[in-house]
Amino acid sequence: MTARHGTVIVGASIGGFTTAESLRRGGYEGRITVVGEEPHLPYHRPPLSKQILAGEWTHDDAAIAPVETISALGIDLVLGTRATGLDTGRRVVHTTEGELRFDSLVIATGVSARRLGQRSPLAGLHTLRTLDDATGLTADLAGAARVLVAGAGVLGSEIAAGLVKRGLAVTLVGRSRSIRFGQVGALLSPRLADLHEKNGVHLRLGLHVVRLLGTDRVAGAVLSDGSEVAADVVVAAAGSSPRVEWLAGSGLRIADGLWCDSAGRAAKDIYAVGDVARRPAASGTGSTRVEHQQNAIEQALAVAGTISTGFPHSPDIVPFFWSELYGTRIQAYGRFNGASTLEVVAGDAAEGKFVGLALCGSTAVGVVGWNLPRAFREARAQFTSGSPDIGERQFVP
């Protein structure tokens, strides 16, 4: 039976679009409406801090699908439109362009960048979360020589690497004394710091920006140790916040994301996928919210299956992550909580090409690859199957 109002998906990035595409390719016959706040066709976000920042790609290169494919799938794209509220009783999404009724709702609104605590905005101060952010930043870099990046996590590291590729002098500031590189930061921080410094980045770890310098345009920043860093451009990459403000008063459970069950259900016929979704942890204790593209894709496929069949799909999604800095491919697969050591099982760490098992005690909880992608793929497959070929270890995939 065809749904009366169909499925409304709020969020037109990879999680939202993958849900829509999977629904249609899976035989769903109802109307599919995807609401996107940005005016652009759906695009991949990882290239923003990689190829687009480096000037190697345009928006078209990062597009998830061409308009012809979207049209052929029968997906209604409502772009340049922001969701402003949700009435769960009436099954209505309120938007800046009016109301949208739904039979099923998928929330894929992602996250927004946290900004530096500056009361009045200064020219030259940027974040990097959207295509328009990337366009504004790259335009500003044309007349810049020195850039300060506030936030030494994955995004900050990728931004620093992209700026170095453009020939700029980069200072990378981080609150922690280590590089907070996702789940594997504790295992790889010294190696990551060395990689940054070998490529000319000035690291200022264990510090944070207290205030920005400049009147109308940023001229630098004062750090928490009282030192000053001169900069023509400052990029804030110090974390993100789930886009759930429009759900206030909806009755849904909101706390650092939208709480769901293991199938992504926040309420009857209401689901969440991607960065905004908070799900029960695989350990059975607590909850987790994963900000990575592959996680969003897998959650979207599962939710589409649930909507299409009426039966909950609750896959055990093991986090997978990758990044690239200065031509070095970094990959990780597993759940790294408690991992304290890395046992090299392929390649040579001294040569900068290796695959390692992340160990919690004597138990392997994940696989890490450093510039050895083929061996990483093999080790990941062996790790998932519990193969003894990569070490005499007990495996917890």
Automatic annotation (TrEMBL):
Q: Do the record's keywords include Oxidoreductase? A: yes
Where does the record place the Reductase C-terminal domain? 320-386
**InterPro entries assigned to the protein according to its UniProt record, in alphabetical order:** FAD-oxidoreductase/Apoptosis, FAD/NAD-bd_sf, FAD/NAD-binding_dom, FAD/NAD-linked_Rdtase_dimer_sf, Reductase_C
| Any GO CC annotation of this UniProt entry | cytoplasm
Where in the numbering of this chain does the FAD/NAD(P)-binding domain appear? 7-300
Read off the Pfam families from this record.
Answer: Pyr_redox_2, Reductase_C
Q: What is this protein called?
A: Pyridine nucleotide-disulfide oxidoreductase
